[in-house]
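sry for the spam today, last one i promise. struct tokens for design, 541 residues
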């Protein structure tokens, strides 16, 4: 079990420990879960208990590599839950991004919990975080995601590791024959982690009937994928959702990878490694498997790497289609995006050294509607050309689909929806880029490696963080981000200024960008972007 250790106790004392911990009682650093007892870190100066590296699944190693996650075997004794477990294998090159916060290993399916509850009967709302990273990198142990500060606001914070890249999303016909066809093992990890919360969170003073999932980038896409999954819907694994910069894993190359595309990509991977069977693949070291599929932010991971696909099991249809037809979970939603999402995705922009080059690439997507496209993304002078190419990739990767998710969710479910537009900038975080909001949401004003923070936060940053975190926590508690002390966040769908601008000034905002989103959305067929957009790959994009 990684570096975790068991502190053995007398079997004769086990019934007494079980009764003491499982009944409503003062909550301390020893907690009894469905699989056994754990001990975590004592309360810190702010009164928060933390439990780290809790196994929520059997390690997916050996013959269990590329299989659905299995619940862990119960243990007798007290599990050391004071340190983060291993991160799942990540592989990313460039951009100064740290792939993992702890060493990589296949034995990585662990859970972390922060709670300020003083009694196990409190039933505090739960906030379940899904990290981003293009489904290629990321770790629950990242300092940005530490749940201490947020837990101090009266919620239970949970995060976890899930399998990434080739370990999480390899589709092969031979694997399909082993059980239920899928390939989306990383998404199945998320489902099992949510089941773990449902079964165990009450022991930490949490409410299993009030779980809010929230995530950023790939984590936000995962939120939309899970909302569209019949499995999550049938089991009612969560009750509210927050999407930060993402929704359905759509992109400039079109919609989610199809079942057949995933199988073809898997078959190509076998040929690349010169193997003919899954048994041979499982015999190759994790390091070598990982090295065979490197990822760079200058490439679209939906095209060049393994990521979620329409597997027919977790995701039976394209999520955009599910939302357009009201098949997604009918729960309150908070969703939004940042004004400079494109900062991270510059390497994925359409070629635009010249206006002619830009038009030729865009024509692959928009065909005979180029005059309309150019009216929205002008190219007639150099400054416009650069701005348009950036705005387009930010819209295609993030903004349009996040808007579309909020719009269709409000339209097809009549559930409360709250939308935001993030514009905040300061000396600490000078660019409202993709990822920029995360330190403020968690109240952890650490260095953001994407932007490269070099100036420490000042009192304005601290105040802004408290305000933003307050909105997120209020939503988790009430399905509404507002409180008596906050600037009023309008409900989305009322028209006019129905977004909240999260900027230096917190205020209702009337979107100026809807024409671009409606244009892109007009290419969707019942919610699905054209498969013909895959043709961008023919020009190396």
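last one done:
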């Amino acid at each position: 079990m990684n570096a975790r250790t068991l502190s053995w106790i007398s079997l004769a004392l086990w019934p007494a420990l079980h009764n003491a911990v499982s009944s409503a009682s003062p909550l301390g650093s020893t907690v009894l879960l469905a699989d056994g007892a754990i001990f975590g870190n004592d309360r810190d100066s702010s009164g928060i208990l933390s439990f780290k590296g809790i196994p929520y699944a059997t390690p997916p190693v050996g013959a269990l590599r590329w299989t659905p996650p299995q619940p862990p075997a119960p243990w007798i004794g007290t599990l050391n839950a004071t340190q983060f477990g291993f991160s799942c294998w990540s592989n990313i090159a460039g951009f100064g991004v740290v792939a993992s916060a702890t060493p990589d290993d296949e034995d990585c399916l662990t859970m972390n919990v922060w709670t300020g509850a003083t009694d196990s009967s409190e039933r505090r709302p739960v906030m379940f975080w899904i990290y981003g990273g293009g489904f290629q990198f990321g770790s629950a142990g990242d300092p940005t995601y530490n749940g201490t500060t947020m837990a101090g606001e009266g919620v239970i914070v949970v995060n976890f590791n899930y399998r990434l890249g080739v370990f999480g999303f390899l589709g092969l016909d031979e694997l399909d024959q082993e059980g239920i066809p899928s390939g989306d093992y990383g998404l199945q990890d998320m489902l099992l982690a949510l089941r773990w919360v449902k079964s165990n969170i009450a022991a930490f003073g949490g409410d299993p009937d009030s779980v809010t999932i929230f995530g950023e980038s790939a984590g936000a896409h995962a939120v939309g994928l899970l909302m569209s999954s019949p499995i999550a819907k049938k089991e009612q694994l969560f009750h509210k959702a927050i999407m930060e910069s993402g929704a359905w894993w759509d992109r400039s190359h079109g919609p989610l990878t199809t079942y057949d595309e995933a199988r073809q990509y898997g078959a190509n991977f076998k040929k690349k490694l010169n193997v003919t069977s899954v048994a041979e693949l499982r015999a190759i070291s994790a390091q070598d498997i990982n090295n065979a599929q490197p990822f760079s932010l200058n490439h679209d991971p939906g095209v060049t790497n393994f990521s979620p696909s329409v597997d027919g099991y977790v995701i039976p249809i394209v999520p955009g289609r599910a939302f357009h037809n009201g098949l997604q979970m009918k729960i309150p939603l908070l969703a939004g995006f940042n004004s400079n999402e494109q900062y991270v995705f510059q390497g994925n922009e359409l070629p635009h050294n010249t206006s002619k080059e830009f038009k030729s690439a865009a024509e692959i997507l928009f065909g005979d509607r180029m005059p309309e496209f150019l009216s929205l993304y002008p190219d007639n002078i150099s400054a416009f050309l650069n701005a348009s190419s950036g705005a387009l990739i930010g819209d295609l990767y993030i903004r349009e689909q996040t808007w579309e998710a909020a719009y269709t969710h409000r339209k097809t479910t009549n559930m409360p929806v709250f939308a935001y537009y993030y514009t905040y900038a300061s000396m600490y975080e000078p660019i409202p880029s993709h990822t920029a909001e995360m330190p403020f949401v968690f109240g952890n004003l650490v260095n953001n490696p994407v932007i490269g923070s070099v100036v420490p936060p000042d009192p304005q940053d601290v105040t802004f963080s408290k305000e933003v975190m307050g909105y997120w926590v209020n939503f988790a508690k009430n399905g509404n981000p507002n409180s008596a002390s906050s600037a009023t966040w309008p409900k989305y769908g009322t028209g006019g200024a129905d977004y909240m601008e999260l900027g230096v000034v917190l205020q209702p905002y009337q979107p100026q960008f809807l024409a671009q989103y409606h244009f892109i959305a007009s290419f969707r067929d019942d919610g699905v972007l054209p498969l013909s957009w895959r043709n961008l790959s023919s020009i190396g994009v």
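The chain has 18 helices and 14 strands. ok im logging off now
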